[in-house]
Amino acid sequence: MIDVSALKDSIKDWKGDALLAALYEEDCKKVEGKCSAAQPYEELVKVMVERKDFEGKKGSTVKIPLLEGNVKNLYLVGLGKAEERTSAALRDALTGALRKIGRERNESALILADKSAPESDVILGEAAGLCGYSFEKYKKKDEEDGGGKFVLKKIFIDGADGKQTKRGQIFADAQCFARDLANEPGNVVNPETLAQTADRFAKEFGLTCEVWDEKKLKLEKMEALLAVGQGSENPPRLIHLTYVPEGKAGKKVVFVGKGITFDSGGLDLKPSDFMKTMKGDKSGACNVLGILKGAAALKLETEVHGILAAAENMPGGRAFRPDDIIRARNGKTIEIDNTDAEGRLVLADALSFASELKPDGIIDMATLTGACAVALGSWTAGLFTMDEKLCESLLASARQRGERLWRLPMDDEKIGETLKSKFADLVNAGDRYGGATFAAMFLNEFVEKGIPWAHLDIAGADFMKEDSGVYARGASAWGVRTCLDYLLKLQ
Ligand code: BES
Ligand code: MN
Ligand code: ZN
Fold first, then answer.
1. Regions of the chain with pLDDT less than 70
2. Which DSSP string corresponds to 90-126?
3. Is 270 a catalytic residue?
4. Are residue 189 and residue 111 in the same domain, yes or no?
5. Is any atom of ligand 1 closer than 6 Å to the C-beta of 342?
6. Ligand 1 within 6 A of CB of 369
């Protein structure tokens, strides 16, 4: 973790590598005496603005090497128009700028930024925690691209509230932890190694962890999870983690994660273009592990459970087939229409189990449908719930954490009718149209009525092609910060 501390000296006395001054367009126009963020360098900013080399435009960053004084480089970072300010834009701008600073051989940085944004110290903590993330453990160090090795180690913030920045860092740390796991390929992370990893980290974080292997899954009637995993040499696992607060527990919340360590589609094999990146189909489960890590680090007063439904969807000789009829844990029978609609099957058993824990709420996270990604794009996750209060809370937390979330319907009666099978209680797939809603309504059949439940479809948002703001290329662990924010505000 990068060391973040409040600035003790005056800005002028600070000695270090990079001084980051984040400015709005308005700040640039009235620089003299008005703009505290760049105060010691007002003259320089004035010249830059006059020459139109820097105008505070959103996304712009200018590096000015300083020939004398305590600071090596001044970075001017544009925040755009003040009237259009959002906390997400501030977080993105700061994370992006710190990433650049860290890759340009700066080991220490002082941040001078807008402190009027709500939760600005939490945001600074998040930026500090997210800026250094990349997944490069399998690359030779000298082959690193993207502007060099990240060396930033120490960040100073002018007038920071340490408790708030720490909170932001914990959010970010939990997210980076989930990214690291989700970025691992299918030859490294399979259901068994995922369970071993979860068990190892559970001990480290002070959680309990119980793993069910294929024999136990059979005894526990988790035929849907078993069916999905049976075509693979790597048998499925159900992983149950628990964080119990030290004092008297307040509420109890269960997170359920889709943990398909690789989704080939099964016998309904995916075309190659769609199979690529399907190592990411375990993102939901990895995120849940990250949330549990964060819950423990934040010492929440809520009891938090994590259920990871892990299987590898492969077209082996024992693979489940289209037309198969399986009986899920809650007794409902499911006719398989498409083996590539496997996520909802493993979640079916996991959601039944989650319901049996009689929690105050269940939130599941899954890279569930291409349809959700088509509807919402690559940066926005889908929210499906019939609980208005949970809906409002999750949308608010997502907004505060700068993770894009949009509610989609799950009350479509016509789609509801198509869940029915001629030969079983349910069928696992239907029309392509409304595919994300169909999947959500299918899951609903396995959640006990009366328990507030939300489904987050993170297909699309789980994976980023390029570094951009808070995101680094690869797994995004979308939703880890949102869910931790939700848990914090619950107590
Ligand atoms: N894991 C996929 C969904 C997915 C697609 C995630 C793209 C991330 C990016 C899921 O298991 C799947 O294959 N869904 C099918 C369902 C269909 C067969 C009903 C889909 O969305 O095409
Ligand atoms: Mn699939
Ligand atoms: Zn899948």
1. 31-38, 141-147
2. HHHHHHHHHHHHHHTT--EEEEE----STTHHHHHHH
3. yes
4. no
5. yes
6. yes
